[in-house]
Write a structure and sequence with these properties.
The structure is a homodimer. Chain A is α/β, with parallel strands linked by helices. The first copy, chain A, has 7 helices and 10 strands. The first copy, chain A, has a 6-stranded mixed sheet, sandwiched between helices. In chain A, strands 2-1-4-5 form a 4-stranded antiparallel sheet, covered by helices on one side. The longest helix of chain A is centred in the C-terminal third of the chain and has 16 residues, at 174-189. Chain A binds chain B through residues 11, 13-14, 37-41, 44-45, 90-91, 136-137, 141, 143-146, 148-149, 166-167, 170-177, 199, and chain B through 11, 13-14, 37-41, 44-45, 90-91, 136-137, 141, 143-146, 148-149, 166-167, 170-177, 199. Bound molecules: adenosine-5'-triphosphate (2 copies) and magnesium ion (2 copies).
């Protein structure tokens, strides 16, 4: 379960202080499928980085499965992240000098998975996103959408219980995008909690609930029709 | 005028040779507004990089305003690029240790524009894309959509005669995206040739002509209603 309680995030730029998240309170239950929408700069990625234990609130609390994440040491936090959370970054963050296959194997290497199993699982996930014939390409030799799909495959390899995806179809044509969303839907059906940031209404439709951010505040929280 | 004549682009990966563009012939007249669509990996960015003098064909010819670009020296090519072409990259390619303002000033610095004029023009273009209060932010302190808008402002500062934009609204919510497209439309009305790659049909609607790529080949070329 994901619980944000009165979360605020502030940055200091020069003499100014900017609040990019303000009093955000949000609970997402296990197995839910939630979409997050809102204008550019409204705080969506900032909120998801906190959910993914990649950033900490300036004030307020973040609890994952009942435990306060701000009380963990950096090593414990990295352990939770590697075992529970799959993260698809808005900018992909692929390692430039590793191939598509090596990028997807990396989270498993951290988790201590053996070489043969790592390779087999990475190949399976890359085939699942349509990249079976790009395994040996470096990110610089892939198209924008192909890099995004490598980032998606990497987020899935450790069988996370929570999948956090920041604009996962932003670089994809609509039919490839729909393929990715049906993959997320089938994961959700097996019990994975899925949270997706999107600007695309047809992507948001896959979720049972839609949360809208504006200027750092939650301004809407709709349960979609009967999901 | 942009003229691609029997352009092929091939890469060698290991022992394999991949053709990512095949026999592409395309003429775009001055002042046109053209959109390019096609699945992820179909060759859109590769084609636009050739149009923007950032890459060369493996075979075939590329002519810009009647001159063969493959006969130019690298310095001449850089000069043509800086004076005639505004390019919005799919991955933005902002310089990480420069502020939004400095990134947008850079093309003018290359073109020898004075300091005061540079600053004034960069501020104007950043305000035009809604970022007047993010001038001193580094790219790492901007959201995905804000970085994309900095990249758009940078492409416009040298008053290019050709604007090449690779998924310019991919990281933007639909209302911010529409703002950017109406900006492009008003530039086009002043005579700027605009070529936009997009996966979004509502973006493609701004163009008078739509070219569709599939597996490296042009498979459709529609003139939109009337314009
Ligand atoms: N340096 C390279 N070496 C080998 N293959 C490459 C290289 N660069 C690109 N490719 C391949 O060229 C093909 C076309 O890439 P391109 O970036 O033009 O696609 P695109 O249509 O822009 O796709 P997207 O919508 O995903 O951005 C892809 O299949 C990609 O893997
Ligand atoms: N390190 C930082 N310092 C100062 N401001 C920052 C920093 N990082 C982000 N911001 C600001 O925080 C705000 C929220 O950013 P965030 O990335 O969460 O937006 P977003 O909703 O994901 O937008 P987009 O749809 O464009 O990706 C933005 O206005 C941005 O400028
Ligand atoms: Mg974002
Ligand atoms: Mg591309």
């Amino acid at each position: 379960m994901i619980e944000l309680q009165d979360v605020t995030k502030r940055y200091v730029v020069g003499r100014e202080e900017i609040s990019v998240l303000q009093d955000v309170t949000l609970t997402i239950h296990d197995g839910a499928f939630v979409s997050i929408m809102g204008p550019s700069g409204s705080g969506k990625s900032t909120m998801m980085h906190i959910m993914g234990c990649l950033d900490v609130p300036s004030s307020g609390r973040y609890l994952l499965d009942g435990r306060r994440m701000d009380e963990l040491s950096p090593t414990e936090m990295a352990h939770v992240r590697n075992r529970k959370i799959g993260f698809v970054f808005q900018n992909f963050h692929l390692l430039p000098r590793m191939t598509a296959l090596q990028n997807v194997e990396l989270p498993m290497a951290y988790a201590g998975v053996g070489r043969a199993k790592r390779r087999k699982e990475a190949e399976r996930r890359l085939a699942e996103v349509g990249l079976e014939n790009r395994l040996t390409h470096l990110p610089s030799a892939l198209s924008g959408g192909q890099r995004q799909r490598v980032a998606i495959a990497r987020a899935l390899v450790n069988e996370p219980s929570v999948l956090l995806a920041d604009e996962p179809t932003g670089a994809l044509d609509s039919s490839t995008g729909q393929d990715i969303m049906s993959l997320f839907q089938s994961l959700n059906k097996t019990g994975v909690t899925v949270v997706v940031i999107t600007h695309d209404p047809s992507v948001a439709e896959y979720a049972g609930r839609m949360v809208r951010l504006f200027d750092g505040r939650i301004v809407a929280d709709h349960v979609a029709g009967g999901s």
